[in-house]
Amino acid sequence: MAIQKPTRKPLPLEVRGSASQPLGMSATQFLRDYWQKRPLLIRNAFPGFEAPIEPNDLAGLACEEGVLARLIVHDEKRDRWTVKNGPFDEAEFGKTPKRDWTLLVQDVDKWDADVAALLDAFAFLPTWRVDDIMISYAEDGGGVGAHVDQYDVFLLQGLGERHWAISDDPEAPLEFRNDIELKQLKTFEPTHEWLLEPGDMLYLPPGVPHDGVAIGNCMTISIGMRAPSQAELTGDLADFLAERMPEELRYTDADLTPAKRAGEIDAAALNRLRQSLPFAAALDRDLLADWFGRFITRYRNAQVAAAPPKATTEAAFDKALDAGATLVRHPFARMAWVKGKKDATLFVSGHAYPCPADLAERLAGERELTFDRAPGKADKALLLALVNDGQLGVRKGRRR
């Protein structure tokens, strides 16, 4: 007879907190089951909670120099969003509409000791993981629209009520609207909705679509966690290492053999990069080649080519080529190329262009180019783009 394994009950999406357990469970259980994994609504996380700052004091802080603050107004009928950045004049708050606006003030914990004291409740997290406490005051209907944060956040209701909607659908669309300054989602279909009252707290891990709308006048306290991107980490680590590397450590090619094709960044060069750079081993061949091609064609360039005052039209370019014009490389235009599976990638002064290998070799190896027959449509388009970027000049020739 088969032995059935005991089934584990699904984890609740909503729990009730208490003075002794603000998370509604132990910190160990929260970190194991929810942290960076799934949302959690904690009713009564802070029993009898009273906001540590008044709305008027928050508005006054938003008027101070050096304080990061935004005022967001939503014209619901036209679906228009207006964003103003602080510091603000006090008179600005007298011009706000009767509803549908929000004041956001960041780093309030740095300016107010009572707000900073809220962080004691989150001592189960490393202190270096905490970013700031942002506080929003909104009047009826106020919010910032449906969006996604890329960091962990605890949304503690301070005053009034706020309606929160989230989507825990892993396939939820994450495309942004392109018609407004805010990074709002184009599409938002909530899977869960709640009304939060003072002392209630909603935890959201990174990447969960959510939308909060004020019901009457309300204040929400957002305890956000610092979450640097891999791009930030890599860039800073690279700078850190670069500052500490001796000047005499350089790219070397003592094993160099005669170049087979002018200007090509070949497999041997890419292998040398992998051996000499700490990060290069983690990059695939195409990504490494794309970076190096852009870098090496910018490296130590004292000047850059400037675009001509007037762009050359396709018709004028055709006429010049038909008349036997010579294309002359700008003295400061550096070129290289990498062979791909089909064609190649041409690098010109830090920019990359798809290009046939034979044309890429000519451009990288010859300072002056003439054509016995008219280039194909794609080749001509590339050449014209380089002319209009100032990388190539056109010297008139005699008509063939």
How does this structure look, described?
The chain has 400 residues and is an alpha+beta fold. Strand 13 and strand 14 form a beta hairpin. The chain contains ten helices and 16 strands. The model has no long low-confidence stretch (mean pLDDT 92). The longest helix is centred in the middle third of the chain and has 15 residues, at 230-244. Strands 1, 2, 3, 4, 5, 6, 7, 8, 9 and 10 form a ten-stranded mixed sheet that branches. The chain has a three-stranded antiparallel sheet with strand order 15-11-16. A three-stranded antiparallel sheet has the order 12-13-14, sandwiched between helices.
Topology:
Elements: E1 14-16, H1 27-33, E2 40-43, H2 55-61, E3 69-75, E4 80-85, E5 101-105, H3 108-111, H4 113-116, E6 130-138, E7 153-166, E8 192-196, E9 201-204, E10 210-225, H5 230-244, H6 267-276, H7 285-296, H8 314-322, E11 326-329, E12 335-339, E13 344-348, E14 351-355, H9 357-365, E15 368-369, H10 377-388, E16 392-395
Parallel strand pairs: 1-2
Antiparallel strand pairs: 2-9, 3-4, 3-5, 5-6, 6-10, 7-8, 7-9, 7-10, 11-15, 11-16, 12-13, 13-14
